[in-house]
Design goal:
Pfam families: DAO (PF01266)
Structural class: alpha/beta
GO molecular function: oxidoreductase activity
Largest sheet: 9 strands, mixed
Organism: Pseudomonas palleroniana
Bound molecules: flavin-adenine dinucleotide
Domain FAD dependent oxidoreductase: 31-381
Helix content: 25-40%
CATH topology of the domain at 10-70 and 186-250 and 346-408: FAD/NAD(P)-binding domain
Protein name: Gamma-glutamylputrescine oxidoreductase
Strand content: 15-25%
Number of strands: 17
Length: 427
């Protein structure tokens, strides 16, 4: 990834100023070497620095180069799997811990933004939109479930109320979460990187970890240098490749695409999303969208299994946008890009230790903006010796994809085709 620039996204075009960061040369010594400067890595680094650890971050490209600088910017709390499904799989005690943590990531983001004065266009309010009565019944049962775990801020919207928050005729209702919301994701990552540096952490860019020497005193090697550390945190997620073969086996990078319109003007923007909430629908292969500060619509959807870059992103995503908002048929698309997230078979994050001193968190399978911020906190707690919350994630069961690394892509695509068909038929 030497000298890899950001993709040509709306976010890169509207990024806040960022300092030049060095490439690692020679040898450094630190308490914790974090591999990857996305939200997982940056959130871990920040919590560790706040707790007195010395931290060195190695980033293969640039801060926020991966999903953290390309995503839809939607602060969606909870996990990519329903908590009752998790409860059936892990039992009530572990589910209780996971359920209590499910809305913490959004709080952490808000605390970070306030404490370090991060300019990232933070807005409160996220809507889950129901396309049919089955979706609506699901939202009703989710609301009841979350209340059991102490999360009482969710509000159901009937067919009339959802029209007040989104000008789309396709929805029969929805659920509003005011602890959800949206941000400029790259600017959040850049602000967190600046916060890391303000506390004495060091971030090296264009410095891919190419080898980890394991053992009592682990060493991370880059092309031109090495980091000696007491602990390593692996936070490369879908961009990690095969650096840690154990982690590659149980997960699959997937591409997902986003488009951004030209500025719509205040009036049209306000007609589409009068309260400026973000929206995602309840399909398995879901569409999600929101406004930007300069009143563009950012619209995402679709999954490419195996993370191949599709040739014409606009041709894939624009029809989805027009299905929701036919009134945008004459609006120009200014940006279109793709990014990779990491899918696991259970759609739950993979968290754990390799030996005594290598920790990892990856694979939140779609909804990662909040989870990754929580992951940083939970990883830092574990390194401090308080591992109860870390272990609640680490004990989640995980299985390899059927077909292994060679055949997992066609198998997963087949699964997605099946779920896509169910979405279309309204099952
Ligand atoms: C297009 C898109 C839209 C999305 N929309 C949303 C959304 O609206 N809401 C939501 O909740 N989630 C969304 N997600 C998911 C969310 O963005 C991710 O779950 C989250 O950002 C993952 O953060 P991360 O830090 O774990 O990984 P990443 O942000 O991918 O960061 C990993 C970093 O590690 C670096 N790296 C990899 N290997 C090495 C190495 N060997 N050495 C050094 N560095 C390395 C990479 O360059 C990268 O910068 C979306 C994802 C995508 C791709």
């Amino acid at each position: 990834m030497a000298n890899t620039p950001y993709p040509q996204s709306y976010y890169a075009a509207s990024a806040n100023a960022m300092p030049p960061r060095p490439t690692l040369q020679g040898e450094v010594e630190t308490d914790v070497c974090v591999i990857g400067a996305g939200y997982t890595g940056l959130s871990s680094a920040l919590f560790l620095l706040e707790n007195g650890f010395r931290v060195t971050v190695l980033e293969a490209a640039k801060v926020g180069f991966g999903a953290s600088g390309r995503n839809g910017g939607q602060i969606v709390n909870s996990y990519s799997r329903d908590i009752d499904v998790i409860e059936r799989s892990v039992g009530p005690r572990q589910a209780q811990l996971l359920g209590q943590m499910a809305f913490e990531g959004g709080k952490i983001i808000r605390e970070r933004v306030a404490k370090y004065q991060i300019q990232c266009d933070l807005k409160d309010g996220g809507v889950f939109a129901a396309l049919n009565s089955k979706h609506m019944a699901h939202l009703e049962s989710q609301k009841r479930l979350w209340e059991r775990f102490g999360h009482t801020q969710l509000e159901l919207l009937d067919e009339r109320r959802i029209r007040d928050v989104v000008a789309c005729d396709n929805y029969v209702g929805g659920m509003l979460d005011m602890s959800g919301g949206h941000i400029h994701p790259l600017n959040l990552a850049l602000g967190e990187a600046a916060a890391v540096e303000s506390l004495g952490g060091v971030i090296y860019e264009q410095s891919a970890a190419v080898r980890i020497e394991r053992g009592a005193n682990p060493v991370v090697h880059t092309a031109e240098g090495k980091v000696r550390a007491k602990f390593i945190i692996v936070a490369g997620n879908a961009y990690l490749g095969n650096l840690v073969p154990e982690l590659a086996a149980k997960s699959m990078p997937c591409g997902t695409q986003v488009i951004t319109t030209a500025p719509l003007g205040d009036e049209l923007a306000k007609t589409l999303l009068p309260q400026d909430y973000c929206v995602e629908d309840c399909n398995y292969l879901l569409d999600y969208y929101r406004l930007t500060r300069d009143k563009r619509l950012i619209f995402g959807g679709g999954v490419v299994y195996g993370a191949r870059d599709p040739a014409n992103i606009e041709a894939i995503i624009r029809p989805k946008m027009l299905k929701a908002f036919p009134q945008l048929k004459d609006v120009k698309i200014d940006y279109a890009w793709t990014g990779n997230f990491l899918l696991t078979l259970s759609r739950l994050p993979q968290v754990g230790r390799l030996g005594d001193n290598i920790y990892y968190s990856q694979g939140c399978s779609g909804h990662g903006v909040t989870y990754t911020h929580l992951a940083g906190k939970v990883l830092a707690e574990a390194l401090k010796g308080q591992a109860e919350r870390f272990d609640a994630f680490a004990d989640l069961p995980h299985y390899p994809f059927p077909g292994g690394q060679l055949l997992r892509t066609p198998f997963a695509a087949l699964g997605a085709w099946y779920y896509g068909l169910r979405d279309k038929l309204g099952f």
